[in-house]
């Protein structure tokens, strides 16, 4: 049962071909801790259901073409292929990612696995920032003016959060809980999900 603990809202963008655990593990942690989050479909057919990289059908709350981005405080981009490429090809999403990632926006962006490299770095949003990504995509950070951090599960630089992959998705969720609700809530979340990391 959802018990809201903050007015901050998260939009999680699930494209056809996304890595479903990266997407839903973060959504799960946020939901458990009372942070409102909507799943948003970036679907080839324009519908509200996407098919993940492992052929799992996921029904989303919203469609990207209908979204009022002004109602959200953080945009979350999961990885997976070809899901990350589909996010990068979505013009309306990328325009808002640019705006949210600006240091003075008062908003945040989070990305995991390939998304920090393919979406954020290629758009110049990690220039002058520290960030991480899946090891196969960390070169994108350095090539586009950022500093790639290989030995951390989650890297926060200002209002941008990045993480490495499926195995660090829970860590990213916990980092976002800490950002919005504080460290005490992180410890509460760890107990709820039996987190040993």
How does this structure look, described?
This protein is globular. The chain has helices at residues 20-32, 83-88, 91-101, 115-121, 138-143, 169-181, 183-193; strands spanning 10-15, 37-42, 49-51, 57-59, 62-63, 74-77, 108-112, 130-131, 147-148, 154-157, 160-163. The model has no long low-confidence stretch (mean pLDDT 97). The protein contains seven helices and eleven strands. The strands form three sheets. The chain has a seven-stranded mixed beta sheet, sandwiched between helices. A two-stranded antiparallel ribbon has the order 3-4. It has a two-stranded parallel ribbon with strand order 8-9. Helix 1 (20-32) runs parallel beside helix 6 (169-181) and helix 6 runs antiparallel to helix 7 (183-193). The two termini are 25 Å apart. It is an alpha/beta fold and 197 residues long.
């Amino acid at each position: 049962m959802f018990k809201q603990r903050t007015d901050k809202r998260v939009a999680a963008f699930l494209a056809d071909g996304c890595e479903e655990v990266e997407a839903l593990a973060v959504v799960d942690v946020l939901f458990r801790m009372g942070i409102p989050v909507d799943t948003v479909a970036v679907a080839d057919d324009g519908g509200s259901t996407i098919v993940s990289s492992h052929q799992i059908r996921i029904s989303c709350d919203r469609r990207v073409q209908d979204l009022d981005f002004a109602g959200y405080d953080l945009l979350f981009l999961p990885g997976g292929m070809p899901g990350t490429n589909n996010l990068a090809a979505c013009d309306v999403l990328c325009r808002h990612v640019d705006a949210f990632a600006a240091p003075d926006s008062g908003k945040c962006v989070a990305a995991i696995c390939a998304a920090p490299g393919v979406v954020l770095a290629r758009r110049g949003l990690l220039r002058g920032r520290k960030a991480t990504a899946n090891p196969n995509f960390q070169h994108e950070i350095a090539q586009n003016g950022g500093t790639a951090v290989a030995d951390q599960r989650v890297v926060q630089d200002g209002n941008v959060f990045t993480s490495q992959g499926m195995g660090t998705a829970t860590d990213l969720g916990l980092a976002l809980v800490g950002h919005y609700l504080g460290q005490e809530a992180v410890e509460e979340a760890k107990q709820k999900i039996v987190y040993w990391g």
